[in-house]
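Module 6 notes. Inverse folding takes a fixed backbone as the condition and produces residue identities as the prediction. Think of it as a translation problem where the source language is geometry and the target language is the twenty amino acids. Below is one complete input and output pair. Work through it position by position during the lab.
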């Protein structure tokens, strides 16, 4: 049964209006352990029976914050166990990857994370990857693009759906 929470109703409307998740679809939810990704998972979890969707969690430990990174991983692992949801976890030395590839830590982290999410999605036959990006992230992206001189194309911000890699961003309305 659908929760009567205004947030859940808004999310469901956003999903339907943008055709982000079809009935019966299988979704990998990218969960860092932070508030945005936890809200995403909890909200999709509330909708899973009504929308007849299957969810798994994927968590990537960048090993950038020492004990904190490990605590996030442990939190996600425990949370999924309590909710009976499959969890896929991978870790990598992001700093070393950045140094070896001569790229920024942010770029290395993004590349590692999305490669892992894609690997999980394809290996288990799921169709999409949901990330916790929200309207604040979108505004930040637009401003960064403007300051970088990206022009008109940079004003678009974060796409709601990318068909090339199956990434959806269900919280961009919030």
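Target side of the pair, the amino acids:
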């Amino acid at each position: 049964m659908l929760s009567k929470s205004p947030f859940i109703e808004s999310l469901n409307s956003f999903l339907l209006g943008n055709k982000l998740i079809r009935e019966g679809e299988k979704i990998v939810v990218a969960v860092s352990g932070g508030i945005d990704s936890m809200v995403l998972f909890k909200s999709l979890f509330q909708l899973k029976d009504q929308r007849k969707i299957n969810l798994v969690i994927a968590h990537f430990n960048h090993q950038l914050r020492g004990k904190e990174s490990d605590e996030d991983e442990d939190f996600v692992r425990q949370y999924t166990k309590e909710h009976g949801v499959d969890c896929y976890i991978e870790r990598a030395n992001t700093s070393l990857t950045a140094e070896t590839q001569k790229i920024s830590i942010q770029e290395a982290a993004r590349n590692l994370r999305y490669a892992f999410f894609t690997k999980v999605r394809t290996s288990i036959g799921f169709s999409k990857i949901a990330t916790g990006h929200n309207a604040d992230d979108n505004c930040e992206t637009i401003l960064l693009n403007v300051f970088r001189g990206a022009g008109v194309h940079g004003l678009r911000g974060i796409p709601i759906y990318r068909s090339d890699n199956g990434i959806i961003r269900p919280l961009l309305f919030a």
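Reference fact for the lab report: Residues 135-139 have pLDDT under 50 and may be disordered.
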